[in-house]
Design a protein that fits this description.
This protein is mainly beta. Among the domains are: about 120 residues, Immunoglobulins (Immunoglobulin-like, Sandwich), CATH 2.60.40.10; about 90 residues, Immunoglobulin-like (Sandwich); about 150 residues, Single-stranded right-handed beta-helix, Pectin lyase-like (Pectate Lyase C-like, 3 Solenoid); about 90 residues, no CATH class; about 80 residues, Immunoglobulin-like; about 80 residues, Immunoglobulin-like. Helix content is about 5%, strand content about 50%. It has a 12-stranded parallel beta barrel with strand order 32-33-35-38-41-44-47-45-42-39-36-34. Strands 10, 11, 12, 13, 14, 15 and 16 form a 7-stranded antiparallel sheet that branches. A 5-stranded mixed sheet has the order 2-9-8-4-5, with no helix packed on it. A hairpin with a 6-residue loop joins strand 69 and strand 70. The longest helix is centred in the first third of the chain and has 22 residues. It is globular, with a radius of gyration of 37 Å.
Length: about 900
């Protein structure tokens, strides 16, 4: 009986354990939106991944891990109503992070600032796995997405797609997946792409795919898709049904000589006022405006178009002028409309040029225009949910004249805004900011010129993600050149933005300012200029993570690249690579900044003795050049590795703990040596290193590092090396190199010395006795090694080497010379001339000499080379035989 009870208890325990392990986490679902309505396992580069775990438990938090196979980030997920959780206590634990092709960042989580999230680096071909306890879900990343055939007509279609990295591209299309036809973009790298494919047959299915090449040279090809053109009657019915008059589109004309009582359908019967013509327009209508000055016009679109039939307001001839006269009102107002095109106008003397505020608008195309003398806002999209809009090929001058912004989307709480292009433009003499843009996915500002801006030329802030500024030229601003900014300090951060190939000169504060909430930002190929009154070339500060600054030229600024966090905040994960910096302080990071890589930068004429000055922790400084000045690390751990200066200094302060040296075993000396603060260098199989440490007893240790054209690599253990003399330019007979070395275990150590004369002999002595003579190669390099010794002193000097010559002739069996035969021995070789002759100069000794040529059997002979003598070695080569194999079929 007792045994049966025990058995039942055991069965119940097993059942409970099994139920717990199987029911704790039921599933993980992933979504592209915070409302958790669009389920997907593929996510746009730089954007958020929202995920929900269905658990048998409820309330509180759990921990989720996300890995790309190399890195792991951890984050809390919530069932307590903390964003993005919808309902506390319902058993649905909700979390979010971002995916990016830039880098991973694992940052402190703050439930009060829920939009501060981790980022996992991911390649398109890889998978990131989300794991909560015993359940895992895989997701992937997209750089090429939003591929759609739109505006499909009877004989044409517009193909649109998006890339997270600026790219060019083309379409392959045809009646099947063999395609055979091509349509190309204008070869300007963009985020948002559209090509109209024409000369199609109606009511026909076409197959297509997209081929793109991004700015880094990476090619991508989409999966195939298809669309079917409509018939002429279907197109006509679609347009008629969209119009209030059930008619087909009209073409209207406006002229300064017209009359609003006319029908507007010909130039001779043109309307007088543009505002009247626009008020009459409907889906698909085109309004042509003849050249002239149109005063006090206030145009408001009453209707919008559709994809196959936009409303178009176009200059018919010249550049018609809209003159507001008194700097009041708006020239053009658009509210809750889409598919409107405006082109060809000059707009002057209004309060606002184009006004589209606190509304929605989509598919606007505003291009080839001028504006001047605008009192407040040239183009105002404040508070508007704006999508798929292009503003291109324009010139704006003297706007604003007073308070205001030239082009603005000044908002961070409106509905979704995305896919905006501002390109090929000039903005001059603005009294305020030129472009202030907020709350947007993918705004692309490119190929623009800014001159004489009252404040920032470009200011991206508050929830701007996946955006790009490239190929802009900025001169003279009242504040920053380009800024990305979250003035709420983490409540509305900006993620995954790029600034590239741009020039900034004369910004009164910072050329590029990354301020209080920028995450995963790339600044590359930019030229950032002073004058010296400018603060920083690149300033990353207050709060943020994930900066890549590479391939920039920065000069004549106050500081080159600089930054640090606010007290209590964080700044982390920074890569500064391959920048050229001069006539400024250099590179500096302050406070509690963490995880910094400073790689392959060149700093010239620095205005500070420590042009690389880092006060933080986990610092890696690799292969930089600073003109023999000092690297300084304060209050953290850092490495200074493989740097390019022949002589430089390493400075520690406030407890900075530094390891410095060379991964290839480069030989160097340091002075002074003062253990434990400055240790003597040691060489290991993976390189030679020393350490520097500071405290209150030795607050500023600053050893001098002198490098030599020599490496030392022990097979195991470690070795010490003391250089007594190193000067490879001295004349023959002088000691060039003198050093003492030993190993911990008597193991083999290989020495390489370079900077010597090519093809010269060098005598190496060990403790005063001849050790070996080496002939330098074409680059002036020698190598030697030694085993099983303790402390030994080696010297190297140039000596007269004993050399001789091997020469002769190579012939065939008939005695005819063989031209082009190769004669070689021990790494020395020569090729016979047309008479079959050759000659090789080499050190004295015994050799095996081989002559060979394709089609002949090689021949080898022994020879001894004597000092200053020629040894003759002739060869007779036999034609190589060919064996033929016959197969019988009988």
């Amino acid at each position: 009986m007792e045994r049966n009870i025990r058995f039942l208890i055991l069965l119940m325990a097993i059942f409970v354990i099994t139920q717990f392990s199987n029911a704790e986490i039921y599933s993980i679902k992933t979504y592209t939106d915070s409302n958790l309505t669009i389920e997907s396992d593929k996510f746009e580069d730089g954007m958020s991944v929202f995920f929900v775990i269905n658990s048998s438990y409820s309330g509180g938090t759990k921990i989720a891990n996300v890995t790309n196979g190399k890195e792991v980030i951890s984050m809390p997920i919530y069932d307590n109503g903390t964003y993005p959780d919808k309902n506390a206590g319902d058993g649905l634990y909700t979390g979010h992070f971002r995916v990016s092709t830039m880098m991973s960042i694992d940052i402190p989580q703050d439930p009060n600032r829920p939009k501060l999230v981790d980022v996992i680096y991911l390649k398109e071909v890889d998978t990131a796995n989300i794991t909560v306890e015993n359940t895992t879900k895989g997701i992937s990343l997209l750089v090429l997405f939003n591929i759609n055939a739109t505006t499909i007509k009877n004989g044409s279609a517009i193909i649109e797609w998006t890339t997270s990295i600026p790219s060019t591209g083309y379409i392959e299309y045809g009646l099947n997946t063999s395609y055979g036809n091509f349509a190309y973009t204008d070869n300007i790298p963009r985020l948002n792409h559209r090509i109209e494919v024409t000369s199609l047959s109606e009511n026909t299915t076409y197959h297509y795919r997209i081929v793109t090449t991004d700015i880094y040279g990476i090619n991508r090809t989409s999966e195939y898709k298809n669309f079917t053109t409509i018939t002429s009657s279907e197109l006509e019915n679609l347009i008629r049904n969209s119009r209030s008059d059930n008619d087909l589109p009209k073409v209207y004309y406006v002229s300064t000589k017209g009359n609003d009582s006319n029908n507007g359908l010909t130039i001779g019967t043109a309307f007088r006022h543009i505002s009247y013509a626009v008020s009459q327009s409907d889906v698909g209508d085109t309004i042509y405006v003849l050249d002239g000055r149109y005063e006090d016009e206030h145009i408001s679109f009453q209707r919008g178009g559709i994809g196959v039939a936009p409303i178009r307001l176009l200059a018919y001839s010249g550049k018609p002028i809209l003159d507001g006269i008194d700097l009041t009102g708006s020239a053009i107002t658009i509210k809750d409309k889409e598919y409107i095109e405006i082109s060809g106008f000059r707009i002057v003397n209004y309060s606002r040029g184009i006004y589209c505020r606190y509304t929605t608008a989509k598919n606007l195309y505003i291009h080839d225009f001028e504006m001047e003398n605008i009192d407040n806002y040239a183009i105002d999209f404040d508070g508007t949910s704006l999508q798929k809009t292009r503003i291109t090929n324009f010139v704006i001058n003297n706007a604003p004249l007073n308070s205001g912004i030239t082009i603005t989307h000044f908002d961070y709480i409106s509905a979704d805004t995305s896919d905006i292009e501002i390109g090929n433009f000039t903005i001059t003499n603005s009294s305020g900011e030129c472009i202030n843009w907020r709350n947007t996915r993918r705004v692309h500002i490119h190929h623009g010129t800014f001159k004489n801006c009252g404040s920032d030329a470009i200011h991206l802030l508050l929830n701007v993600h996946g955006s790009v500024v490239n190929d802009v030229h900025i001169e003279n601003t009242g504040w920053h050149g380009i800024a990305i900014h979250d003035h709420t300090v983490g409540y509305h951060p900006c993620y995954n933005n790029r600034i590239r190939s741009s020039y900034v000169y004369g910004a009164q504060h910072n050329d590029i300012d990354l301020h209080s909430g920028t995450f995963n930002t790339v600044v590359e190929n930019c030229h950032l200029d002073g004058p010296p009154a400018t603060g920083q070339g690149i300033y990353f500060h207050n709060l943020g993570a994930g900066l890549i600054a590479r391939d920039n030229i920065i000069h004549d600024t106050g500081d080159g690249i600089d930054g640090g966090p606010l007290s209590g905040e964080f700044l982390t994960d920074i890569i500064i690579e391959n920048n050229t910096i001069y006539n400024c302080t250099g590179i500096s990071w302050q406070g509690s900044t963490k995880n910094i890589w400073i790689i392959k930068n060149r700093i010239f004429n620095a205005t500070y003795w420590t042009p690389v000055h880092v006060g933080c922790c986990n610092i890696t400084i690799i292969q930089n050049y600073i003109e023999g000045k000092a690297y300084r690390i304060n209050s953290g751990y850092g490495r200074i590795i493989d740097n390019l200066d022949e002589i430089y200094y390493v400075k520690s302060g406030y407890g900075g703990n530094i390891t410095a040296g060379y991964t290839n075993g480069r030989v160097f000396s340091i002075s002074p040596i003062s253990p434990p603060y400055i240790t003597a260098p040691k060489w290991y199989p993976n390189g030679g290193y020393f350490t520097v440490f500071s405290n209150s007893s030795y607050p500023w240790p600053t050893p001098k590092v002198t490098t030599y054209t020599m490496t030392a690599v022990p097979a195991s253990g470690n070795a010490t090396i003391t250089i007594h003399k190193f000067n490879t330019s001295l004349p023959q007979g002088e000691i060039l190199v003198n050093f003492t070395t030993n190993t911990t275990d008597g193991n083999n150590i290989v020495f390489d010395v370079w900077g010597l004369k090519p093809y010269h002999y060098y005598l190496i002595k060990k403790d005063g006795a001849n050790f070996i003579t080496k002939l330098s190669n074409a680059s002036g390099h020698i190598q030697f090694n030694n085993s099983e010794w303790s402390t030994k002193t080696f010297t190297i000097k140039e000596t007269n080497g004993a050399i001789g010559t091997i020469s002769g002739r190579v012939t065939d069996t008939t005695g005819a010379p063989i031209q082009g035969a190769v004669v070689s021995t021990n790494g020395y070789s020569n090729t016979t001339d047309d008479s079959g002759n050759y000659s090789i100069t080499l050190p004295t000794g015994n050799y095996t000499v081989t002559a060979s040529k394709t089609g002949y059997q090689s021949q080898s002979k022994s020879a001894e080379v004597f000092e200053n003598r020629t040894t003759e070695v002739n060869f007779t080569l036999t034609v190589a035989t060919t064996t033929t194999t016959t197969t019988s079929t009988s």
